[in-house]
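Hi everyone, sorry if this is the wrong subforum. Our group has a chain we'd like a structural model of before ordering constructs, and none of us has done structure prediction before. Sequence below.
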Amino acid sequence: MSDAARTVRDIVEANQYLVLATADAGGRPWSSPVYFAHLDLTRFFWVSSPDVTHSRNIAVRPEVAIAVFDSRARIGTGQGVYMSGVARLVDDGDGDGGIAAFSRRSVAHGGHEWTSDDVRPGAGLRLYEATVDAHWILAKDGKPDHRVAVHLD
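Answer:
Right subforum, don't worry. Here is the predicted structure as tokens:
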């Protein structure tokens, strides 16, 4: 695994929330912090109501951007992971292991266990998944706000 890929993994593992950026049908942007779990740094899961803005946006425009970072980092020392992908409502409540991954991470962080029954249609909350197709981190080359693509090994 490259140093850059390790940086991506370390940042994602160290943080509990991602910032999910969506847009409505007209292109108006919206961002939301959501608690998340992931599989292989390429599939990200969260639980939300289908009635909230980011969920409604995903229903009409599934393209998303994601940022994960430590907001407590001292000024000028922070590092973040930036991602792009496509999000969707997981219809069957499981998402090919998504709810299990979400539940494991929830329990590890002191939350409760989740099952597919908790996110089935009519339950109020639903499971969402973003499949990420690209990752970037800040380059530490002295240039301000310079991002570099990261290829996961």
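For your construct planning: The longest strand covers residues 126-138. DSSP finds three helices and eight strands in the chain.
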